[in-house]
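Bug report (template v2)

What were you trying to do?
Predict the complex of my protein with (2R)-2,3-dihydroxypropanoic acid.

What happened?
Run completed; filing so the output is reviewed.

Input:
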Amino acid sequence: MKPKVYITRKLPDPIVNKIKLSCHVNMWEEEDISVPRDVLLNETKDVDGIISMLTDTIDAEVFDNSRNLKVVSNMAVGYNNIDIEEATDRGIIVTNTPDVLTETTADLTFALLMSTARRIVEASEYLKEGKWKTWSPMLLTGRDIYGSTLGIIGMGRIGKAVAKRAKGFDMNVFYSNRSRKPEIEKELGISYSTMEDLLKNSDFICILIPYNPEVHHLIGEKELETMKESAILINTARGGIVDERALYKALRSHSIWGAGLDVFEEEPVSSDHPLLSLPNVITLPHIGSASEKTRLKMAELTAENITLVLTGKKPLTPV
Ligand code: DGY
């Protein structure tokens, strides 16, 4: 008998058909709605594997309910939606999708940095709303990117890819990280910094660390106060790393200059969230890895990982 797999969101047919060669598949058929909790619990009662999205909480309740479960294949590089300790205790393998999304997410991070600095969204709206009367010396002036100082919090794959882009813009790049990366420092000409100095000296600060409870609200009131008045904060990692109330206060009082946010403490963020009302913030709906090619690669890797485990082989990218 083929092993059973539940997929928590509609994936492209060719990918599902590939999984079907070795597994029996059930899938939540919606693209824009997460699977409701009760449906997830019901559908995963007797499965061997789950393909999950970052919007699904896969915790002890799911594991207790799903007695045959052997593998959870998450279609994301981040896996903070999965209780890894509970999975490990039960011998359940968890896989993610590193590497395939690195460059695409770095592109989006840099795009957000540039659009926040140069007020791209605001300028486009200004024109569309018919406000443009004439060219004017100080109209919609923003901040320079070239030659400025970038502080990257986290020097993993995406941090390195962002640093590479920044060097192309002649930026001075500093990073803070749990461990120093001398080979990257040498390769890219970037420097290690304490967190405090990074916050104090950077014109742009990009958050690129994985989320776990230890880094909850790593950027709060004190850290925002340490930043320059001209600083721009970019978060394409996870919303919980930034204290949104403190960020709102800092942006409103202009104690920092602007922010570009692709992620929020609660997603989807409500359209009446105070941060969305500020002119000095650009907000995106968690699209860091959202290019057609990359999302297909992520889906393929997710499918490959689950079929490998369920046919008795080693997954390509276990957590
Ligand atoms: C991930 O894979 O963790 C990203 O946040 C998805 O874009």
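What did the reviewer find?
Residues 54, 76-78, 101, 288-289 surround (2R)-2,3-dihydroxypropanoic acid (CB under 6 Å). DSSP finds twelve helices and twelve strands in the chain.
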